[in-house]
Amino acid sequence: xxxxxxPHYLTPEEYLAWxxxxxxxxxxxxxxxYAMAGTTDRHNILIGNLYSLIRxxxxxxxxxxxxxxxxxxxxxxxxxxxxxLMVTCDPRYQETPLYKCFPKLIVEVLxxxxxxxxxxxxxxxxxxLETLTEYVLINTQRQRIEIFRRSxxxxxxxxxxxxxxxxxxxxxxxxxxxxxxxxxxxxx
Length: 188
What we know:
The chain is 23% helix and 32% strand. The chain is of the alpha+beta class. The strands form three sheets. Strands 1-3-2-6-5-8 form a six-stranded mixed sheet, with helices on one face. The chain has a six-stranded mixed sheet with strand order 4-7-9-10-11-12. It is globular.
């Protein structure tokens, strides 16, 4: 996350209006705006594979899957982030076409420039979303998936998956996926 060169604090409303006028994407954190870096082939392939697998599973359900272009709003932390992928099953998702407030699953694909933030402050901020039950980190350097699952109001438990496990589970969606399908064509 890289802050714009001249800090100018915006309200959420100002940010949303400003963001719709920009060709590039920016995240918003407590009044400050941060330019988003582009993605790599590997990043794009991984999130595309996961989107396809989840979309097929959710077809015909009340849940919706979003990736790359739709923001998550974290009102308690005064933030708007662009998760790599999120799923919401809350009917209130229809209320806001530019952002979603009620995700049950959020996925971030790790990169060298974002990994510390995705694991630290961003995850801390995401935990304020009462509907969020799973936070998934996908590694781009080696085949590894880390899933943080909410247990109760305050506790999160980590489960790590490796290729030798063969499969991994997105419990929030009652979906079992194959490692090979997620990492297909990613070159890892």
